[in-house]
Amino acid sequence: MPRPKSAALGREQFSTVLLGRVTTRAWSQAAPQIHPVPKNSTHRARLHTVQGLTAHPTQVLLMTDAEAAAGAVTAPAEEG
User: Fold this and answer.
1) What is residue 47's three-state secondary structure?
2) Using an 8 Å Cβ cutoff, are 50 and 34 in contact?
3) Distance between CA 68 and CA 5 in Å, rounded?
4) Where does the chain show beta strands of DSSP type E?
5) Is the pTM for the entire model greater than 0.70?
6) pLDDT tens string 15-36
7) Nearest 10 degrees: Cα torsion 42, 33, 9, 27
8) Alpha-carbon gap, residue 47 to 39, rounded angstroms
9) Residue 55 to residue 36: CA distance in whole angstroms
């Protein structure tokens, strides 16, 4: 039995795919079920969320490394 391509196997692992500023070829590999391919936005932090047979335009947070690190700091644990 032939072994599946690793890229195809990897796609099967995700129910949601986020794509932004990618080529048509990348779309066809990551989300072949979406046709026609949505137009890329020229605005930063805008991408498409692909779930099943639909692709939705999405606005995401755009942060510097320092802002992301500050947001990742966890709050102190509550005493019990």
Assistant:
1) strand
2) yes
3) 35
4) 16-19, 46-51, 54-59
5) no
6) 899 999 999 999 998 999 999 9
7) -20
8) 10
9) 10
